[in-house]
């Protein structure tokens, strides 16, 4: 029951600076700022404020920041007469419109997947949604979607067929992360779950499937029953996030308003071996609820039972975290101001404290045998050690993008690197062109003296770039100049490749080359007027340069490349380049792509193909040692 407060209780608040909440014991007292109060009551409009909130005087940007830091959907907020000034603020409206666009985009992508799977008879449950409108969890880092174990392989295949890439660098047991990219940006992320848990299950999935239902506000979203939603919310913030955010309090309160069967909640937690973790997470969430609102919706008898079941050491640690006497006040004291104080928003949970309960869960889980429990302990410890030591190991990969000047290589390289960065993978964008090194200026100055004859007569009728190309072609009429230039540029490029390609590859980076060996040979062919790839320096360059795992050649019509290029290269030069690329694509296995497509459409093809190839063989020696390669010890 939600309890109302007397005028005497309300007098404890200070409207100007927020309300004063006192902590006893080792906890430190602090004030809730006006912006924190406004954010809390905006987030839960069913709460009755204990005093006049500073709706008009608060810092709107600060309120928005608090809500977004706590993952509270701005679209769940309800406008009223009191908060109309805040809702009408341009900053607030802009933030809401941005979230509206994000929701619409994510929902549209999810709808495509939902339809494709429905045609296969496959259903799902959004396990982190509790039905709080909007029930589509667009503020989550990814969509956590539960499927029946028998459907998982089919779901993975359908996701790949619809343009998603499986990110195997974040794979967990019975959990698989898929992303879809557009123009190098992630437009949808689906975390496929075959169970609800981390390493091990925390719920009774068979019961969850029997009592889930379609949400009231969105026919696209199927949500768990209140019991399963409450268990998921408590377990996720305590074991995974290690902090109680405002959204966690809201979701828990919504479950309570829906009606929770606490006997069923404790049955599931006991069966899965985390009853003690449930008690602690329940008390911490309720503590933060009362700190924010001065009241709790959790039944007092449930709280008293949770406190009674705590081992002595657990209670002592909680008292140390929250303050001496806080637990007794929470469970047995009168609800109201001053009974519980605010430490921080969100409330952070010590890492070691949370881990103690997770290891306890692994050891006690009655649904797993002794051997399986030992494997769980080994895998979790190894993975956690790697994470805490910030050890990052990834397979290397060299991707090259070639094509005539103006085909869009640089744009595609940047989008591809952005996609790798979204996947938390180190990727370098490397540009190179033979003859660009300053020390080669000595050779070019010497060769300029050889062509002064009719240069001035032609100069008036040429563009600057066309003249530059013609001058070089005339220089290279001499076989000795061609020979010298070939070797000098080959040496220059090998030095660049050693520093910017070979070394990063040895360090496990992904290297994306915007121009590579093939582009240097195409330049030679256009300048020399012969098949430059047959030259001995070209063979040496190809032999000593790292071989790409994937090499693309962007093919565009000469007139399109000329229009795109800012250099104004002559058509004859681009035609000669294109002919050389055509020969090399056949000789060296370069994959042709239609570069005349829109840059975003082309980027989507490249990103999907490259990332799919990269993750198809994702493993390293260091990951092996830390049991972190996909499927290892599962």
Q: Would you write up a description of this structure?
A:
With 634 residues, the protein is of the alpha/beta class. It folds into 3 domains: 7-86, no CATH class; 105-383, no CATH class; 397-617, 3-Layer(aba) Sandwich (Rossmann fold). 52% of the residues lie in helices and 12% in strands. It is built from 27 helices and 19 strands. A 5-stranded mixed β-sheet has the order 4-5-8-7-6. It has a 5-stranded parallel β-sheet with strand order 16-17-15-18-19, with helices on both faces. The longest helix is centred in the N-terminal third of the chain and has 29 residues, at 90-118. The radius of gyration is 32 Å and the shape is elongated. Mean pLDDT is 86; it is low at 1-29 and 449-461.
Brief overview, please?
With 634 residues, this protein is an alpha/beta fold. It contains 27 helices and 19 strands. The longest helix has 29 residues, at 90-118.
Low-pLDDT regions: 1-29, 449-461
Alpha-carbon Rg, integer: 32 Å
Q: What's the overall average pLDDT, rounded?
A: 86
Shape: elongated
- Residue share in helix: 40-55%
How many β-strand runs? 19
Major β-sheet profile: 5 strands, mixed
Number of helices: 27
Task: Tell me the distance between the termini.
Answer: 45 Å
Indicate how many domains the architecture comprises.
3
Lateral arrangement of strands in the main beta sheet = 4-5-8-7-6
| Proportion of residues in extended strands | 5-15%
- Given helix and strand content, the structural type is alpha/beta
